[in-house]
Amino acid sequence: MSDFETLAHDIKLWAAELGFSQVGITDTDLTEHEPKLADWLAKGYHGDMEYMARHGMMRARPHELLPGTVRVISVRMNYLPEQAAIAHVLSDPTLGYISRYALGRDYHKLMRQRLKKLSDRIEQAASELVARPFVDSAPVLERPLAAKAGLGWVGKHSLLINRQQGSFFFIGELLINLPLPLSQQVDQPVEEGCGKCVACITACPTGAIVEPYVVDARRCISYLTIEQDGPIPLELRPLMGNRIYGCDDCQLICPWNKFTKASQEPDFAARDNLHAPELLALFDWSEDYFLKQTEGSPIRRIGHRRWLRNIAVALGNAPVSPTIILALEQKRLQDDLDEMVLEHIDWALAQQMAGLAKVGRKTERLIRAVDKGMPNHARFTELK
């Protein structure tokens, strides 16, 4: 066994010791993905994420990102917390649904630190190492690289799927200059397992998966609640339900996620204040309290104004409630709200008031029906 073969073997052992669920090694050739990337950008599917277009085809050329790179060490780490309570939160419109990946500590820093430790370990064995870790932090096509390294396949929802783990995991990579051998048994693309299934496409609340493997970010709830800084399009607001940070619907419906295993990483455990939070309680958070409660969380980066915007939409989608109407009216009286947040609060109020008027009309019909002697069971039907 050559020195590099031994090193490749050891790297996988070291990665496991650092808590990574799987590791694979691949080359940097993503030529086949360049036309797809160019087409996606040309159609404007990246929305306001101008950084997606800023670096052009560099995303498909890791060797340009770090000159001298010949191999990519791709890793994944499971994140789904124990007692995820997904169905409970999504089925209760008075609660705020937060994508399960964001319930614990910010994965970017944690995984990057682990990758840096892996890099340091490799350098001890190969002093000529030049390496750079990335976790959703650079212009590189992470999912195609992970697929080439054998970590799974890119599903029709554009996320990576693993036969043993489903898709509830993070991925990251370490770009290196060492020509590590690629295992013919392990470091190879796996056969796609989506087949004719289109469950993720039909389950998307906003129709963001416009064709298999292609997502129009401008319609994606994750983009709308996290990446988009301005107003959320009017026609999409009612479709968002109570999702206030991200969306997991395309993963929840995926048959492969029946194999998902809970994460053993303590830092990914769900925080009590985010696990199944009441919308009205979250809406009451001041900016200082928001920053304190989201310290070390990926949620913090969207800022308090987007946080209020997202919750306002969810409150507008909630069942008619005098308590919600009062909370919205009190919030809009604050003199420190910007116009964008205020507009979403006004929209939510309009939704609630429209619902209240509808209930009023049903009540009027019931009163008239009682006067005419409608049977009890019929009255109940009228109120439904």
From TrEMBL:
Gene Ontology CC = cytoplasm
Specify the domain of life of the species encoding this protein.
Answer: Bacteria
- Provide the active-site residues from the annotation: D136
Entry keyword annotation includes Cytoplasm? yes
Q: Name one GO molecular function term.
A: epoxyqueuosine reductase activity
Give residues annotated as binding cob(II)alamin: R59, D136, L160, I171, S222, C247, D248
Q: Which reaction does it catalyse?
A: epoxyqueuosine(34) in tRNA + AH2 = queuosine(34) in tRNA + A + H2O
The pathway noted for it is: tRNA modification; tRNA-queuosine biosynthesis
Domain (4Fe-4S ferredoxin-type): residue spans on this chain = 182-214
UniProt remark on cofactor binding: Binds 2 [4Fe-4S] clusters per monomer.
EC no. given is 1.17.99.6
Task: Name the positions where [4Fe-4S] cluster 2 binds.
Answer: C204, C220, C247, C250
Principal place of residence:
cytoplasm
Quaternary structure, from the entry: Monomer.
Record's protein name: Epoxyqueuosine reductase
